[in-house]
Amino acid sequence: MDRMSVEDALFPGCPIRNVLARIGDKWSLLVLYTLDGAEPMRFGALRKAIPDISQKMLTVTLRTLEEDGYLTRSIYPEVPPRVEYALTERAKSLLPHINGLIAWAIENMDAIKGERKASREV
After folding, report:
1. Which Pfam families does this one have (predicted)?
2. How far are the Cα atoms of 10, 44, 106 from residue 96, in angstroms, in the given order?
3. For the chain, how many helices (H) and strands (E)?
4. pTM across the whole model
């Protein structure tokens, strides 16, 4: 599904499909989690904190999160220009749910890995 076009033909007003289409990718939750509790971060600091994300994907992810109001982008008129990203109140209200998902994943990961291994052996 195209991340920028999130309306489903059968269920155009479905809020969960709409939200998950935007934050359910490989990087969005990780970017939100990385910004949690941090002072505003610059692009380079985010890249260092998430070393396996490409510059292009970080740029696309930040734009998408900004468009949906999960983060703010502040530009400072300096040479070179300084740009910082910070979570909005909307994103902060999502974080307890992300943290719950992380806790669930930690609790269940060994069992999930065991099931995956067992299904490959069949």
Report:
1. HxlR
2. 31, 26, 15
3. 5, 3
4. 0.81
